[in-house]
Amino acid sequence: MRKKVIAGNWKMYKTQAEAAEFLEGFIPHLEDTPDDREVVLCVPFTDLAIMSQSLHGSIIRLGAQNVHWETSGAFTGEIAAPMLTEVGVRYVIIGHSERRQYFGETDETVNLRLKAAQNAGLIPILCVGETKQQRDQGETESLISSQLKAGLVGVDQTNLVIAYEPIWAIGTGDTCESKEANRVIGLIRSQLSNPDVPIQYGGSVKPDNIDEIMAQPEIDGALVGGASLQPASFARIVNYQKV
Ligand code: PGA
Question: Is 29 known to be catalytic?
């Protein structure tokens, strides 16, 4: 059975004090979380070290939101994989649409980052997805195929998570219908050499739609932005009910 991976993406939210407060409220909700699912928190760099200490013994896995392809060097503002693994990071989001849109991330740099993450023993979460305009023009399938083709050159598919995140559904409250997300994720799977890669859905995942999303046969988890910032709401998401 494919692993279910529920990951919070805190983006540029939460100081260390706020992160500690979140954990205090969140960890007690994990007592009965079934062990068929992996719970991940992808947090700002400054939160990593303190969270790594507080997460000892918990089922939560620590994630970062970016990694550079070199192990060190003159790359102002970037972070290297050994800096992440040193503080206990296990997962890293790569190619999120906000990085592609605002920070010039391309399929080529995504590919370099994926390989560097894997070489360091990190599990990358590769994000793909179309804009509203691309969807309206019928380009969803071709766009995602080209993101996968270019992004996955030389990438080990046994150590990988993919997130299908339609850009028009991110932070908008406009969730992609679960059946449509299931269809696109099935298409993504058909292009992989390893059909067991966990593929998440992301985009306005909330406590009131997670059960329906996770009931879809192709969907192996969720990448959750806004609704991962409050302990009760993220707890309801990781403790999704099977319907
Ligand atoms: P959202 O963000 O859940 O706030 O829509 C998802 C994401 O950007 O990963």
Answer: no
Q: Which of 38, 68, 96, 98 is catalytic?
A: 96
Q: Where are the domains of the chain?
A: 4-238
Distance separating alpha carbons of residues 1 and 143, to the nearest angstrom: 29
Catalytic residue among 38, 98, 105, 165: 165
Residues with CB under 6 A from ligand 1: 9, 165, 170-171, 202-205, 223-227
Q: What is the mean pLDDT of each run of 10 residues along the chain (243 residues)?
A: 94 98 96 95 97 91 98 98 98 98 97 98 98 96 98 98 97 92 98 97 97 98 98 98 91
Q: Is 96 a catalytic residue?
A: yes
CATH topology of domain 4-238: TIM Barrel (3.20.20)
Task: Produce one character per residue of 72-89: b if its CB has 16 or more CB atoms within 10 Å, e if not.
Answer: eeeeeeebbbebbbebeb
* Predicted TM-score of the model (pTM): 0.97
Residues constituting the chain: 243
